[in-house]
Design a protein that fits this description.
The chain contains twelve helices and eight strands. It has about 300 residues and is an alpha/beta fold. α2 packs across α3. It is globular, with a radius of gyration of 18 Å. The mean pLDDT is about 95.
């Protein structure tokens, strides 16, 4: 086991702790300009966005990647892993960073948090980029495929044992998940070791699985019913969906069905050869797609 320092990776960015929504969050920040907030997925941490941090900061944006609640060097609270609280965390971070709104970019469960923000905190979301993350109202369709993501979700419902499995042999299972869910050739050894090291931080294995437990169990509880009602409204902010063509966790056809729930400007980008982690498997393509999308709707807004 290691302490939180395993999540402090050197680079051109600046590390700091930000208080929001009653918790402390570790962020890596680079650049100045309009705020772009990056939310990672499972089983990663802020470092997943290292390529996009440098690309967007170089293009004139303030790029901030956060360790979500329970991950990396952020607080590992005993509760707060439901999507409503996590969306409140992200909205609070926007305010704590001194901004009224941000472009929110989320991968996997971080993307689901982003979708949730559009319903619960729309004034803080300037636009949403969802990477390998279908709208929550479309994610149920994944169950019909019985793919690796659903199998992981179901296995996570058992108490204690899933945490232990993730921690065994230096978190070797984390590396296996990265390889199983990605396209061919990723991750390299150094990248895998970085994620295994960060997952060894005390409580991360438990906290990360609490996300998946709420997502599954809430379907049978009143809090989940209230969430589903709130998520029925159309998404009115600009949306970009980026999805790997070979994603085994969520097939791209299911993710693209989210289009029907977006009333605002919408763009779809399918990344050939990439699996569930296109922002790392094909970082240049994803960074380009982000910059082109942001630039296009910014220009449209100015022209209006």
């Amino acid at each position: 086991m290691l302490d939180d320092s395993a999540a402090i990776v050197d680079g051109p960015w600046r590390h700091r702790t930000v208080s929001a929504a009653g918790a402390r969050f570790h962020v890596a920040e680079l650049g100045t300009g309009p705020l772009v907030l990056f939310l990672h997925g499972f089983p990663q941490f802020w470092w997943a966005w290292r390529h996009q941090l440098t690309a967007l900061a170089g293009a004139g944006y303030r790029a901030v990647a956060v360790d979500l609640r329970g991950y990396g060097a952020s607080d590992k609270t005993p509760r707060g892993y439901d999507l409503v609280t996590l969306a409140q965390d992200a909205a609070g971070l926007v305010r704590a960073l001194g901004e009224a709104e941000a472009v929110v970019v989320g991968h996997g469960v971080g993307g689901v948090v982003g979708w949730t923000m559009t319903a619960y905190h729309p004034d803080h979301v300037r636009a949403l980029a969802a990477v390998a993350a279908p709208h929550p109202r479309r994610s149920a369709r994944i169950a019909a495929r019985m793919g690796p993501g659903l199998r992981h979700l179901l296995r996570s419902q058992v108490p204690i044992l899933p945490e232990h499995r993730l921690l065994q042999d230096g978190c070797v299972r984390v590396g296996e998940l990265l390889r199983e869910w990605s396209g061919p050739g990723w991750p390299d050894r150094t990248t895998e070791e970085r994620y295994r090291l960060a997952f060894s931080i005390p409580k991360v294995s438990h906290c990360s699985l609490e996300y998946h437990r709420w997502i599954f169990r809430s379907r049978f509880r009143p809090d989940g019913a209230r969430y589903n009602v709130r998520m029925r409204g159309p998404v009115r902010v600009p949306v970009l969906q980026v999805h790997g063509a070979e994603d085994p966790v969520c097939p791209w056809e299911i993710a693209r069905a989210s289009r029907a729930l977006v009333a605002g400007p919408y763009r779809w980008e399918r990344v050939p050869g990439a699996g569930h982690f296109p922002h790392e498997e094909r970082p240049e393509e994803v960074s380009r797609a982000l910059l082109e999308w942001i630039g296009d709707w910014e220009r449209t807004t100015v022209e209006k």
